[in-house]
Amino acid sequence: MMLEVNGVAFNYRSKNVLNDISFEVNCNELVTIMGPNGVGKTTLLKCMNAIFKPGAGSILIENEDILKLGRTEIAKRLGYVAQRSDSNRMTAFDAILLGRKPHVRFNISEHDLRIVNAAIRKLGLESLALRYINEMSGGELQKICIARALVQEPRLLLLDEPTSSLDLKNQIEILKIIREVVEEHQVSAVMTMHNLNMALRYSDKFIFLKDGLIFAAGDRDDITPEIIEAVYGVTVGIEHYQGYPVVVPIN
Amino acid sequence: MHLTCVEFPTEYKRYISRKVSLIISGVVLLAILFILSISLGAVHIPPAEVIQTLMGNSLSKQWDIIIWNIRLPQSLTAIVAGIGLAVAGAVMQSVLRNPLGAPFTLGITHAAAFGAALSVMIMGTGVMQSSSASAVKIIHPYFTTFMAFMFSLIATGIIIGVSRIRGSSPEVMVLTGVGLGSLFTSATVFIQYFADDIELAAMVFWTFGDVARASWNELGLMTAVLVLSVVYFMFNQWNYNAINAGDETAKGLGVNVDRVRMLGMFCASLLTSMIVAFLGIIGFVGLVCPHMVRRLIGDDQRFLIPGTCVAGGILLLASDTAARLMISPHTLPVAVLTSFMGAPVFIYLIVRGYRR
Q: Residue A138 falls within a domain, yes or no?
């Protein structure tokens, strides 16, 4: 078991956001959290990373309680890709090198540079390495953020809407990269997403949040039009195309 | 997860050494400027003789006095104050993720000016005199310095206090700073309205930032605080880089964002307050310098912090030398010159947009 979330609850200024959230993530598994805007998907990711302290419950990564670890120790286990990352006049190489922060106190070692170089290769960013990130497109910047999380050498990746502002080609590229990393590198990933079809195409498991609770969870076969209608309030049908379910809105 | 190590990125290494050599050239330029600054003035001393005298060979009694008592402390003060103001500005911009973060825009210098004005009012410390150095003298300079320092610390304290209540977001800190700036300015105007003409002259005189004011003792104190602060800033370079990528990304990388921001602000404010308290208000060095360096070597704090130090030293030393020579044999306080440079840069920043 990679990750165990047990009975997590979170209140934001006396407003109850999350209630009794429990689920598990296995090794080499990609889990997508879905639900309408404002339901608490991002909040849940932040709780899992201890950026927000949950009011109740526990989060265990490989049987260690996250809430009892220091920030640096958490960063060695969990890579977090925020929904929005600021760009500045820093080269892509340096921006990715920042991911070594949890492992570095002051001086960068040759080992760190080699790892960054490996991540650049992995994501095909060679031609961008020495360009400033504030001159890059949204897709390129998102790849750099993912590369930054990879060089943290985490056990689990948390990605907050990794494809939200990207075009179709970039969405597919990013999700393929995440998929590949999960399959090849003994790492798991949890992401939030709005695009149901993309999620169904690339994820292993799904969690639907509604009113601060887990409304439904399971793999592809467990997703029904009724669940989607109940969560989003939209009538849909689910068709199958080349073995993958496709969600189609009906009026 | 494990990434397989690949070969060493030689191109990156070359890119880094370009940045390092840029900073080293800056240091060389600063050294040349330093000798030149001591050499130039009402009495011209050739650079070779300046070096000889600095090495301890006494060439002429007059030159010894000019160099050791007047020009050397002034040049060193210009360098130390330039480094201090510039690096404090760079750190404030970084931890606040705001290009307008600087002691001047955060109201810290206004608070110092109010403290100085108050001291003149309470102690009646201003007198007119007809010396060649200045028309107005402050009788208890240390009390004035102390008051200026205290009030700039109070301003810092309020900014930090408010951000404790409202969360230390960049917007909260900058807006509080703007509010404080105008509060202290109006308080200063209030005091000035009730001051007599001599007190008023002393208050206004104090605000003209001038590096000629510092003695060797004050220079020593400023240097000590500067060295400690720069070491602290350098130690936090990766934390500042992480904060620049966004608060949440930084937290995900294991940075205690609130603490790093608070301590960074505190150290930068302490450094600025002390310089302002000893020398008066020297505006815009903290704002202009980091932006020039960002253009040249980028936002990476590993190079931005040392780069800003070198550029700050060069900028204030060059400005001070120019201010001394411009209307020779009279001298102009350096702040008059730096303030002139500040306004165009401010406007340039707005035209270019707020992104760094």
A: no
Give the DSSP H/E element, type plus range, for residue B47.
helix B47-54
From the list B3, B242, B251, which residue is nearest A115 (CB)?
B3
Is residue A77 very low, low, confident or very high in pLDDT (cuts 50, 70, 90)? very high
Say how far apart CA B255 and CA B266 lie, in whole Å.
Answer: 18
Helix/strand/coil for A248? strand
- What are the structural domains of chain B? 10-352 (1.10.3470.10)
Q: Is residue A68 part of a domain?
A: yes
Q: What contacts B44, CB < 8 A, 6 or more positions away?
A: none
Which residue of A lies nearest to B303 if distances are taken between CA atoms?
A: A90
Give the number of domains in chain A: 1
B1 in contact with A, Cβ within 8 Å = yes
**A211 is in which domain, residue-wise?**
3-83+154-249
Residues 165-224 of chain A with CB under 8 A from chain B are 181, 185-187
Percent of chain A with pLDDT over 70: 100
**B5-20 pLDDT, tens per residue?**
667 778 888 999 999 9
Cα–Cα dist B266/B96, whole Å: 12
Q: Burial code of A19-41, b = ≥16 C-beta within 10 A, e = fewer?
A: bebebebeebbbbbbbbeeebbb
Express each pLDDT in A93-126 by its tens digit: 999 999 999 998 778 888 899 999 999 998 889 9
First to last CA, chain A: 42
**Is A41 inside a domain boundary?**
yes
Q: A117–B8: do the CB atoms touch at under 8 Å?
A: yes
Distance to chain B for A87, nearest Cα, Å: 6
Task: Give the contacts of B120 (CB within 8 A, at least 6 positions apart).
Answer: B126, B138, B144, B195, B199, B202, B203, B206
pLDDT of residue B260: 92
Rounded to 10 degrees, the C-alpha dihedral A69/A74/A78/A79 comes to 160
ipTM for the predicted complex: 0.91
List the single best residue of A69, A73, A94 to mutate versus B (max B Cβ within 10 A): A94
What CATH number does residue A51 fall under?
3.40.50.300
Pick from A88, A114, A151 the residue to mutate for testing the B interface (most B CBs within 10 Å): A88
